[in-house]
């Protein structure tokens, strides 16, 4: 673990891998809930870092990190969000070819994995989900689409994502969900927040 | 801002709100308009300023009475190049991918609100270079500050930087800036659009909050509660000949050559016309990277000096993405960001590295 200063009031804590990042993020949330974390405006996890923005004294916070003990992952089983998916995406055949499996296997492989929201970004409520075995990583499409429909379940690199609303996008589209990922009028606004466990459930509807 | 981003990110800086010379063509901000219209009233977060009894949660303003709101509206007669509703922004949602947003020049927003007797964080209008014109349906106290500009009420000159009484049905014109970029226009009672995630700000990156103003847009006004400030006016500041941005190196300064760090700290850049609410783009000598690897996405702060593949540093402003994959060579001190928001295209920019007590 290494804490890098980001201006005067923020720290970027760098960790070895996604797993350590998840554990450190969970520890931060635990400490904040217990009221033992100094006031911080934003806690933003990402691929291998956690950003703490809006600290009164970033330097002393960084100094105090040395005393943090890496705790065992939370034994409580977190809630899992289930997302029903029609595996009917326009890039399904291409993904199957990249994986070296028949097209109908993509749904089985993808829906068998247990996902976790590593972090959010790109758009409100867009989560970067990890959980697919490394051998199933795929490249982005060479030419992004100008409009990806909302609810598109997509792959790029090691990540799975669901487009919360229509936007341009270059990820490989393998399916569609009708679940509303982002609704600022709802509590919580984002269905997929960092740390949330996710399962994709294959549905036949629309096939 | 990474190869892994699920959409192309370059579009952010080529959108219709860029500060191009021909501003008349920019008023139809349809790319953003489409995305913005579906924002519904949200649950509210902790209020960013103290809240009077019986107020609208999270806003510090009295709850608008729907029976009377039609009479408290403001009709947009001329939207200008880009005029948006802004308050102090939405905090606490960066981990969900929600930018902070809010006024690019917070001291100017606080000032216009004080002038009309509002809480400092009430929602006001932020214009871009060529102002706007509005017609309130009730008599209202307004104030214009930020970038200096002519102010007219029904064609007659009115003071800038002071409370101005606008009669019901009169036309308030906020003219083209004399210097700077963004003028702020506050109204007694504030612009009372429904807050989204605790803020009324328009976020151009993610489409939260009200759409940018268009001709014919009608905005609700809250009932005025405070008294206008008893001042004759506030001093204008002459625009600085150059924009000096104090920076602290890092977190990714080690991704750049020592020659690049020298270049950043010694050479003069210029504000690019491609700047917008998301970032202040610069033109000048590119910064050479020492590490060519791809940086995994990481959290971004306002003021981050990110270096995209073209090597030209860009300073993230209020609507910046919450995570990005290009290295941040340095971070601009928060107190210098309002000046960055007022620096017109072509303004020389110098980045000055400041030593810090913690880094020795």
From TrEMBL, chain A:
Keywords: ATP-binding, Hydrolase, Nucleotide-binding. Residues 1-192 form the Carboxyltransferase domain. InterPro entries: CT_C_D, Cyclophilin-like_dom_sf, PxpB. GO terms for molecular function: ATP binding; hydrolase activity. Pfam families: CT_C_D. Gene3D superfamilies: 3.30.1360.40, Cyclophilin-like. This is Allophanate hydrolase.
